[in-house]
Amino acid sequence: MLAVGGLGGIALWSPLPTQAQAGPAPSAQPLAALPLAAAPAPLVRGLPDFSQLVEAVGPSVVNIRTTEKTKVSQAGPEGDEEMQDFFRRFFGAPPGALPPGAMPPGAAPGPRRGGPPRGGNGPDEETNRGVGSGFILTADGYVMTNAHVIDGADEVYVTLPDKREFKAKVIGADKRTDVAVVKIEAAGLPAVKIGDVNRLKVGEWVMAIGSPFGLENTVTAGIVSAKARDTGEFLPFIQTDVAINPGNSGGPLINMAGEVVGINSQILSRSGGFMGISFAIPMDEATRVSDQLRSLGRVVRGRIGVQIAEVPKEIAESIGLGKPSGALVRAVEPGGPADRAGIEAGDIITRFDGKTVEKSGDLPRLVGNTQPGAKSSIEVFRRGQSRQLGVTVAELEPEKVKTALKPTPSAPTPVGVLGLTLSDLSAEQKVELKLKGGVRVDKVEGASARAGLNEGDIILAVANVEIGDIRQFEAVVAKADKSKPISVLFRRGEWAQYALVRPGTR
């Protein structure tokens, strides 16, 4: 259990210094002669009143109940049935595996309400699976929620604030962004207003409406704690301190103008309940996904076929990049769009279609939002220079598992300056590994071992110079300044990465 310091949670404030505390008193003057200083405008005018927001947006927030069909025994002890009913009513579906930080769609829904009657005489029984939230996108019945709220459900029921309940049709769900759209047969519904996420500021008041633990139409409020928080491949989450609990999933995050700016999706928690950190899907990303789900039933994303990583500060300085920005290419899919465009492992992608790639997480979003078939420009940093390349974006497909290649070493040649014993790659090995050059590490010790190099690694470049064979490796190392760290680009299995070898350290 976490504890918050302070006297029962009451903040203690020190008084502002008086004039006597601030410095020596000015010379005596008549009171009438003293100028009256204008009082500064207060930065905070008072706590907000959310009642009008609740009245405006509340009718657009819905409860989403999911059910599943389960096999039931034709006969059994009455006590067992009563115990099962008790757990159904007060604890919901049996606990299952959840991703770290993700909210279950309804870990503890309340007593069963409405919907189809529970069976008992047949082989199948429809039982409550979980409870979540959602909000009305359009007046004709499109509703947005989280993909994990409806995942695995046999039936989805939407309950409006006026207690009308509808069986919903799942239009589409996108697990990568955790966005789903369902449709109910109704008209004249109060749709939400969509806000501009780019205008949302850290420290701004926001409000959430949802069904935590099955308690419908629950309102909580807080502030935006951070923006563009990277916790997912395609989403820069909005972080808030709004109280979000299981059952809030899929509900709206609302700004003070009554506009929806996000979908409450995840919490960071060790206990499964709210601990002060909540994450919401930005509404601009969610709208882009929902538009495709409604028109295509799925989301189409672009891909270029690279595996990437962040660029460490020391590596950026060592190779002449300067600040640690961009996306380090660790592997290139053979025959993929990036391979055909000439992108190589070890390149650092700094711009895509004219947009700066500040961190590696920016690239999947930029590429993913590009229409497959589009011709895009890419700027890469390679061997101390920037290069402009063109790439034709392909459509993202399920990730394929690749087997790491293990080249057979040729006769080893010792290179003692960096503590490495190396061997040249044969022509067959270069073809198999799809490499133009490089040397294989057969033994590692000293400075290179401390830098993280392992036996079997393939060294591709040293000190920003591409390596073709051992002779070139020796020449580059001989000219390198041994008093400074030497950057080594190497490939391990399918992955390329950098290491800094410090020859002068022990």
Automatic annotation (TrEMBL):
Reactions catalysed: Acts on substrates that are at least partially unfolded. The cleavage site P1 residue is normally between a pair of hydrophobic residues, such as Val-|-Val
Positions with biased composition (Gly residues): 112-122
The entry's keywords: Hydrolase, Periplasm, Protease, Repeat, Serine protease, Signal, Stress response
EC class of the enzyme, as a word: hydrolase
Keyword Repeat recorded: yes
Annotated SUPFAM superfamilies: PDZ domain-like, Trypsin-like serine proteases
Residues the entry annotates as binding substrate: H148, D178, G247, N248, S249
Region of interest called Disordered, as start-end residue ranges on this chain: 94-131
Residues making up the signal peptide according to the UniProt record: none
GO biological process, alphabetically ordered: proteolysis
Single annotated GO MF: serine-type endopeptidase activity
Active site, renumbered: H148, D178, S249
Lineage top rank: taxon: Bacteria
Compositionally biased residues, Pro residues: 96-108
GO CC list: periplasmic space
Family designation: Belongs to the peptidase S1C family.
Protein name from the UniProt record: Probable periplasmic serine endoprotease DegP-like
Species name: Aquariibacter lacus
